Hints:
Number of domains: 1
Number of strands: 6
CATH superfamily: RRM (RNA recognition motif) domain
Strand content: 35-45%
Largest sheet: 4 strands, antiparallel
Distance between the termini: 30 Å
Order of helices and strands: EHEHEEEE
Amino acid sequence: MRNVLIRPLITEKMTEISERETDKYGFVVDYNANKIEIIKAIKEKFNVDVVDVNTMKYKGKTRTQFTRKGRFTGKTPRYKKAIVKLKEGQSIDLFGEA
């Protein structure tokens, strides 16, 4: 089985959403993962009940880098993020605070 959850999504916007709605968390997930696989992975890893999942796919952007030896063009990686809503009263400890 592939690794569905890649890392938690910790950005200003996601932090604001988590503070406003305490039962929502963001994750960067495998680009080909579907909502059912995401729910199963979160349930196994964090032992919580998932109510809803919203997913968004992002394409890689083209970037140009200038160096001493010339100009190089590359792409940033594509990724998929998932916003997960948990059952009321449950939470995920992303930072391992005890």
